[in-house]
Structure to design on (352 residues):
């Protein structure tokens, strides 16, 4: 099964129906192709000569795809949007509102996907609500490890995980740059960053002026990415513990970036804990935390944005899938998901 062979093969549209009227925030739709949400916003902010921290979104959207999502920003208007001209990016004014766009207000996401090289997808009406590769860094899936070290206050190690240790899928110039940084650690001014090293450049630029302040270097990252760092580690614990719970049912294992996850045919209607410092976990979650060398209080941090009380997430999600006809190994799929659920997990469930 192949997805995202072409950007047009993966289309996602946010559904956001309850936007209160007001004057403080400009609400607009960001249509993009082959951009991550974060890089698109950074480019838009640069064109408007604003800090990217002024922009709010309900969630990150993948780079490889055609996506449509809502954005809010203080202090701009319709004319500011009209002046932005960027390749494969379109901005569409919606309204002015008294509050920013945020995840809790999002209805969900509608997906239209083309799957290639399939022998035929098998329709399902539910899937396990795991976090997928995107949550952990995509082609560089180690954000959960960064999160663990940050929560344990090993900030230099966390920064090294962001900058060093190349992954197989990375280009040769990326690998060479990471190797040079490892061999010349601390000599920040000599680091030559490839063009795509946007976040790496922010970290090193901060350390050039503030040598040794590794937490500060991480805080220099875009707000969306900084908040995702501990969340990635919570998501990892969620995946591992939920998968162990589902092992007791009739299940098959599916691969993802960090290993294998159990998918079972039976629908289990339970909420599963996302661990935090006020969590009431269970035996399996505590077993995983002991293996990891962390405990509930690990998730209480001096930096409030890195702390989490914990919450619950549906272990499984019901889904109404519309399957197109199989034609020469190609099949169209359409469905709607609530906020925070991953379309790629639905596709894994369909591919049985």
């Amino acid at each position: 099964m192949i997805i995202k062979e072409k950007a047009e093969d993966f289309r996602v549209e946010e559904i956001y129906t309850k936007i209160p009227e007001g004057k403080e925030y400009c609400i607009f739709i960001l249509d993009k192709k082959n951009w991550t949400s974060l890089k698109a916003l950074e480019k838009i902010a640069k064109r408007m000569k604003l800090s990217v921290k002024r922009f709010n979104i309900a969630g990150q959207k993948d780079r490889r795809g055609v996506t449509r999502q809502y954005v809010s920003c203080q202090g701009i208007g319709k004319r500011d949007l009209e002046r932005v001209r960027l390749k494969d990016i379109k901005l569409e004014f919606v309204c002015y509102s008294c509050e920013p766009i945020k995840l809790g207000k999002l209805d969900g996401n509608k997906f239209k996907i083309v799957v290639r090289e399939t022998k035929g997808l098998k329709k399902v009406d539910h899937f396990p609500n795991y976090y997928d590769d995107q949550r952990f860094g995509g082609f560089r899936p180690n954000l959960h490890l960064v999160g663990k070290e940050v929560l344990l206050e090993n900030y230099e190690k966390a920064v090294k995980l962001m900058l060093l240790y190349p992954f197989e899928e990375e280009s040769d110039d990326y690998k060479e740059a990471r190797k040079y940084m490892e061999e010349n650690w601390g000599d920040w001014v000599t680091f030559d960053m490839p063009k795509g090293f946007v976040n790496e450049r922010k970290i090193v630029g901060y350390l050039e002026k503030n040598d040794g302040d590794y937490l500060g270097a991480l805080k220099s990252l875009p707000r969306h990415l900084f908040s995702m760092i501990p969340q990635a580690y919570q998501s990892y614990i969620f995946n591992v513990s939920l998968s162990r719970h589902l092992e007791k049912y009739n299940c098959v294992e599916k691969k993802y970036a960090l290993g294998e996850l159990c998918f079972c045919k039976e629908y289990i209607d339970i909420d599963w804990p996302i661990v935090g410092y006020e969590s009431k976990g269970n035996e399996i979650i505590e077993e995983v935390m002991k293996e990891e060398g962390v405990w509930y209080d690990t998730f209480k941090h001096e930096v409030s944005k890195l702390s989490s009380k914990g919450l619950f997430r549906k272990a499984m999600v019901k889904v109404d899938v519309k399957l197109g006809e199989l034609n020469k190994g190609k099949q169209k799929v359409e469905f709607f998901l609530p906020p925070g659920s991953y379309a790629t997990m639905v596709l894994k469930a369909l591919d049985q």
Observations:
- The chain has a mean pLDDT of 95.
- The first helix runs from residue 37 to 48.
- Residues 143-225 form a domain with the Hypothetical Protein Yqey; Chain: A; domain1 fold (CATH 1.10.1510.30).
